[in-house]
Amino acid sequence: MTAGLSPLFWPFLQQVQVQAAGRPLRGPQRFLFVVKCSGLTPAQLVPQELVGQMVEPAEEAGWPDRLRPVDTLTDLSLAQRTLPDSLQPLAPFQDHLTLLQGLSGRMCRGGHSAWYGALGCYHTGSEGSPGRAASPTIDGLLARALPAIFPHVGLTLGGKVLSGVKDSVVYPGISALDTDRPLPYQASPQMAYKNLFGLAATGRAARAEQQLSAMLLDHLVDDIQRLQRRIGGADQEKLDQYLGAFEDLRNRRRRLQGLEAQIRRHAPQVDDKYVSDVETDRIEAHFDIAAATLISGLSNVVTVRPDTLDVTYRGLGISKHVHGLGHAESVQGMTAVEARNRIRRFHIEQIARVATRLRSIPEGDGSMLDNTLIVYLSDAAEKHHGSCIEWPFLLLGGLGARWRRPAGGRYLQYPGYGKTNHHTIANFYNTLLHVVGQPQDQFGRFDLNLDPATQRGPLAELLA
């Protein structure tokens, strides 16, 4: 229905389709997934006033403290409570914050990374390889449910979990559009900017490059169409695939031209950090690109993987790579726990910068932040060598009227593994699909050690 029409009309036409099908109207919805490596320590997400009752000491000196499992659902307001130090940059957004604890993901592999399992809920890969994408991940499914010029945008610092900083398109093995269809990520902020916001580039050279690209695409499409008339059989089928790919590229360019003014208005300001070798500079650039991508409407689903185990946060004064910190190796002037907290705070600062931009833009009865959910998690669950028995999430923003957001923010912890009313990360992903109008009863694969009934459907506590 949207083919050939300006992207500016897509949201309107989607609403018409929803209304014609008898489903309730929804406002715009967007997602930013931020997937860190080396585990997200649950105890470090507990408000300061609750630490005494909810946190227990680490098993070994130098290791992070542990979250104490609960027997019944804990649902508390964050109002009048103090966020832990690493989450302090989100204090101005506490009304939009949900700290989600107690979910498990033991249908996934543990260790350094669950690979596609973290966002897909299935076991795959090994310590050094992501294995195959057995089914779509949640960001891939949401990209299909919320179409845009770029269905999904992936931004990263490196490739696979044990690799270092890259400067090319990579496949980190955490996102998939469908079975055996992994999603690519751009590791270079400069190239990501060029691919997404090339129309915002000014000057004679930039215009000449844009015109040349358009002419080349037109020429390739014409050549393939002429060749199609001269061959047949299996070669014809191959040409059909080539033609479809090049036509998609040409159509995407034309749709981008329909958004040129909007892209120019919201494109990030390119500076030295886009070509910097300092890891923190590149990460900041990626978050700038993520915010601008969502605001300009180029995509409704962005996934940022800010680091890998081989990354060293030199810009934060940390001389040890993430892998070493995960093994409790100390660095100059701080323990491994303190260094990990400093890295987490840096990630949270970037999330807060995105939230500030989203909140500044009116939308409906509120702002873009009210219709955008930022999801912060780790692909290694609760610790460096994750067991997946506890998988914490930090949720910031909202998804319109169908997302429950109590005043003051929320701390939500489900009963521990194996206890009555325990749930899994699959229930959370079912919740997201439910909110965007794509409800399903099962996501990924079940944990065979748990009652299947508790792994079906959404988390009712998150739904309005």
* Average pLDDT number: 87
Q: What fraction strand? A: 5-15%
Task: Compute the number of structural domains.
Answer: 1
Strand order of the largest sheet: 4-16-5-15-14-1-11-6
- Helix and strand sequence: HEHEEEEHHEEEEEHHHHHEHHEEEEEH
Low-confidence blocks of residues: 1-13
Assembly type of the chains comes to single chain
The structure class reads: alpha/beta
Assign an overall shape.
globular
The largest pleated sheet is described as: 8 strands, mixed
Can you tell me the CATH architecture? 3-Layer(aba) Sandwich
Radius of gyration: 22 Å
The fold-level CATH name is Alkaline Phosphatase, subunit A
The number of strands is: 16
Helix content: 25-40%
CATH class: Alpha Beta
N→C terminal distance: 31 Å
Number of helices: 12
What's the short story on this structure?
The chain is an alpha/beta fold and 464 residues long. It has helices at 10-20, 51-54, 117-120, 138-145, 189-197, 204-228, 233-258, 260-266, 279-296, 322-326, 336-359, 425-435, and strands at residues 30-36, 55-56, 66-67, 74-77, 97-101, 153-156, 169-170, 176-178, 181-182, 185-186, 301-305, 362-363, 366-367, 372-378, 393-397, 410-413.
